[in-house]
Task: structure prediction
Amino acid sequence: MLGSFRTRPNLGIALWSLSFTLLAIGITTSVLISVATAFKTYQALSSRDSDWQSLAEILLFSLLPWVLVAGTGIAIALINMRLEPLRHEAAAVRESVDVLGMNTTDFHGVKVCVIPTEITFAFATTLSGKRVIVLSSGTKGLLSKEELEAVMWHERTHIKNGHLLFRGITQRLATVIPWSWFAQCFRKEILVLSEIAADNKAVRETSSQALQSAKSKVGSVC
Result:
């Protein structure tokens, strides 16, 4: 699937997300079957005549579910440790935005927060539980009307198409299991496909020249 959906990014995002969902269901099902099998084996052994071997087996299978529970708890703790830097980073961004202060406008139903700074950037994010476009006053003053619209359509597409959610899932997955080939490919493909989808929408609403010109002026933070 790698690189197969550059011309149909929305389909690619849907299929990669479906693959992840099926994988998660498969893993969950396997764990549930393992726990059920352990309990079933324990009940079967409990009904046998007691001897040292059967007692040892009973002890093993009676402890196994609790070992699985403990292992799950440890895994959750490790996941939280890995995700903690991401939470601190998000909190720092929110704090910086609050300190700078911002004016708000609206772009086709999406809130736009304009931060008074000459640094050029524009990106979609989540602030206080709401998905918004964050735009610097420097970017707003630098771009022409059509260029600014192209950027706004690009970022609005990230919000309306759920790209922020998909990116958040893939980023956390890659952080928790960095050794997983699937996690790394999933993250990279969603990032690339979401950018292509957002570009396509911006081009349809404005023009390719306007989008490319805006990107050349603003840089990579767009």
